[in-house]
Amino acid sequence: MIFTIWKKEVESYFSAPLAYVLIGLFSLISGIVFFNLLVTYSDGIQSLPPEYTEQISFVEEVVLKFFANVNFLFLVFIPLMTMKLFSEERRLETLDLYWASPVKDWELVLSKGLAALTLVLCFLAVTIIFPLVIWGVGIKDFKLIGTSYLAVLMNAGAYISLGMFCSSISSNQVIAGLLSILGIMFLWMITWGGHLNSNYLVAEIFTYIGITSHFERLLRGVLGTQDLIYYFSFIFIFSLLTVKSLGRRNW
Questions:
Q1: Which pLDDT band, with edges at 50, 70 and 90, does 138 fall under?
Q2: What pTM does this model have?
Q3: Number of H helices, E strands in the chain
Q4: What DSSP string describes 120-170?
Q5: Distance from chain centroid for Cα 38
Q6: How many C-beta atoms lie closer than 10 Å to residue 227's C-beta?
Q7: Nearest partner of 65 among 25, 45, 35, 44, judged by Cα
Q8: pLDDT higher than threshold 90 for residue 122
Q9: What does the pLDDT look like over 156-208, one tens digit per residue?
Q10: How many domains, in total, are found in the chain?
Q11: Fewest CB atoms less than 10 Å from the CB: which of 60, 113, 114, 251?
């Protein structure tokens, strides 16, 4: 049943222009970003005396900044993907078809989440050419490239779970999308609040709750269990909240 719903959701994405528009825009913007980072790095190298060129890191100036920009693009793209998952079905009252069937709420949430993640994988697939360019300039650190993709993918999973929850609590797609964007921004800002707080304990709590510190560690190749636990816990909690939100029909 999960596979059937997943297949239906994926087909619904690609039967409408939205998926192609989003993939096209993502490809264009990410390509422009990568090209500009390369040009900026090249100009910086050429403008410095030879003895100072080693101080500019290609990894820092191109690789890490590129994946950080991809994560920023997901701030907008993922809410656009998830805002209709439940909101549109509530508006059209097609959720009643699922509720009248033996499909469980958690199966529905899991299927729709996997469908959204599939579309995210399509986004990331178009960026495969950039690691090939990085390989061409002599950067052959597969661990760094792998953890960078993992960092973006884990963030995307967290954004999807948050977006599904926002979509489940509103029948208005625009409101669901805005709530999702605000939620993602809050996850970024709470980390900044931790850096600005003078109380060590409060700062540590804020830093852990915020998503930025976990993303940055993975992005730099630090694969820690605390970060993976954070992401899986985040996804599980918001998926559970989505299931509970759908279950309100029985109350």
A1: low
A2: 0.91
A3: 13, 0
A4: HHHHHHTTTHHHHHHHHTT---HHHHHHHHHHHHHHHHHHHHHHHHHHHT-
A5: 24
A6: 21
A7: 35
A8: yes
A9: 999 999 999 999 998 899 999 999 999 999 998 887 776 666 677 777 888 88
A10: 1
A11: 251
Tokens linked to 237: 């909690």
pLDDT value at position 251? 44
Q: Are 5 and 112 in contact (CB under 8 A)?
A: yes
Residue showing tokens 């625009």 = 174
Query: How many angstroms separate the CA atoms of 13 and 123, rounded?
Result: 13
| Cβ-count burial 7-44 (b if 16+ within 10 Å, e if not) | eebbeebeeeeebeebbeebeebbeebbeebbeebeee
User: What does DSSP assign to residue 199?
Assistant: -
Cα four-point dihedral sign 94, 100, 101, 106: positive
Does 248 score more than 60 pLDDT? yes
Backbone angles phi, psi at 228, to 5 degrees: -65, -40
Q: Which range of residues forms the domain containing residue 176?
A: 2-250
Structure tokens at 128: 């495969």
Structural tokens at position 130: 């950039």
How is 98-113 classified by DSSP, letter by letter?
Answer: HHTTT--HHHHHHHHH
Whether the per-residue pLDDT at 36 is higher than 80: the answer is yes
